[in-house]
Amino acid sequence: MMLALSKITTDALLETMTASKFKVFEGELNLNIIGVRAANTRANTFNDVICVLYQQDKKWQLKLYKATTDAGTYWRKNPMNIDGTAVLVPGQHRSLWKLGYHQGKYRALVQNKPVIVLRDNDKNDEIETDYRSVELQEGYFGINCHRASAHIESKRVDKWSAGCQVFANPNEYNEFIELCVHSAASYGNTFSYTLLDQNQLQGQKSNEKHEN
Hints:
This protein is α+β, with helices and mostly antiparallel strands.
């Protein structure tokens, strides 16, 4: 089940960012890129949301994009890394990305500095989220922000993500990248990323249960 988009509002995001003591970037087209990971981490669907919150003409604007913030089932069961599947840890990752090319093929946000990931090595369809009980690693792991198919909206994650933050809809992704290009012209080619769990988001119900 995808997150209820009606619950993801400018006020809810700003309240959550402030409560968590995360930096809110202000100024014309200074982007706050915020991922919200759904409580159902078993899903192999694009049930998460990437939000872009920014000011334009001194007013807050909010874009919501269907995405995944965790790996597809294929890479959960067949990890690329011997230590397990990479799961980006929630928090604010400052200057995480810069504009570049995903796998050298098309324009994307690519990893710019070391980041902390959890290594899930259970090889099942459930992403581990108990950060106290598994190994954490810090480094360059190719945790990029890119799209799935170039032509159609993807319904299943499958091989599209092994830990990257991935957009389902190519048109939405193109809009997002253009926002990044315009922002970089004023603020430089680095982008911070804030990843929230669903239960952190102000106004969201925290008791959503996993599907069987």
